[in-house]
Amino acid sequence: MKVLLVGSGGREHALAWQLAQSERCDALYCAPGNPGIAECAECVGIPVDDIKALCNFCLDNAVDLVVIGPEVPLVLGLVDALDDLGIRAFGPTKAAARLEGSKAFMKDLCAKYNIPTAAYGRFTALEPALAFIRDKGAPIVVKADGLAAGKGVVVAMTVAEAEEAARDMLAGNSFGHAGAEIVIEEFLDGEELSFFAMADGKHVIPLTSAQDHKRVGDGDTGPNTGGMGAYSPAHMMNDALGRKIEERIILPTMKAMAAEGCPFKGILFAGIMLVKGEPYLLEFNTRFGDPECQTLMMRFDGDLLELLDAAAWGRLSGAEKNFSWRSETALCVVMAAKGYPGSFRRDTVICHIPEADSKPATKVFHAGTGYNPQGELVARGGRVLGVCALGETVADAQEAAYRAVDKIDWAGGFCRRDIGWRAIAADKV
Ligand code: AMP
Ligand code: GLY
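^ thats the input. predicted complex w/ glycine below
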């Protein structure tokens, strides 16, 4: 098979690494890819939002399957455009990607189909939004309706903070058009985990769980980021909780999407808040998480291409027999450019990745890397590397991942030193 993978981050490097190992993979292209991905795929310089160029590339190169990493091309309708040309794709249509692309759509769907989530209101005008905030009081959560690269959520601890967030978003100051409508919702107090499922429009296969570390600083302090690290499976996960998440959230959502005329195909990533042991849906993403995907791919044991192709064909039924998850914990430490998530320096030189990558249970995925004119590997983004390791326990995986991190010589970078801490702390009580 000829496969095109769309994206350029650590998630896509992890997917490319698994896809390239498939016996059925004759050619793997990645648009636009990165230097790490270039080790296992042929990178083609097409941006992820250039739908027409991506379609033309598939036609010109007789691509059999397109695997889409990030949300932007999904929300823009890449899968619909490929469908129109008869090109198979793994990912949701534009209508199904509204689960991620519109928080208002997602909340209304949950309300209509009794899927447990925080109570909410939708607003396009400021005065009713402010009245709602004052009526409910703080803490309260204000969200831009549309895509905002993971930054469209303000968890306000005071009424004044919530009012300011609503004002900024509705005035179009913070997130442009994405904030033309906002969702204001009840604050849920608990511990978060991520749960992943795969669907083909009819059948659903629950995958596994992970826990992300969204804040930039140790102990979950400082500003939010795209994710500073993750591990899988999440420490709170067990069979009973998995069943609750499937029965109350994943399966009802899949049924609801079919009933609404937009059956879901691809990865459904549920951000869950566990409140007193009960799961509530915080958000849906319609793709793998980054860096959660890196930990999932470390644990995946099977032929990923065969699985994604079965989903794209609508033939997922029974496919759970063909793969499994390694019982070990996988842990990913994100190395970012100093200054991230604020403004950060570019083009600082990174050395010794091969030394860090030398053990079979350790893997360094590239996210924001490039080459300078001298041919040296340099940082080109905020989140730059994902250093991953497998271990018998979270503590073992953590130790192995940081041993690899410490081999990397990159003066312009930093990372959190405590990825996995909640699991390790929970283990000690
Ligand atoms: P989202 O992009 O919707 O996942 O929100 C980003 C982060 O904001 C989540 O990972 C949570 O930490 C936090 N958050 C979102 N909604 C709520 C809520 N209703 N209650 C508490 N925290 C929330
Ligand atoms: N790590 C969170 C995300 O990919 O949205």
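The first strand starts at residue 2 and ends at 7.
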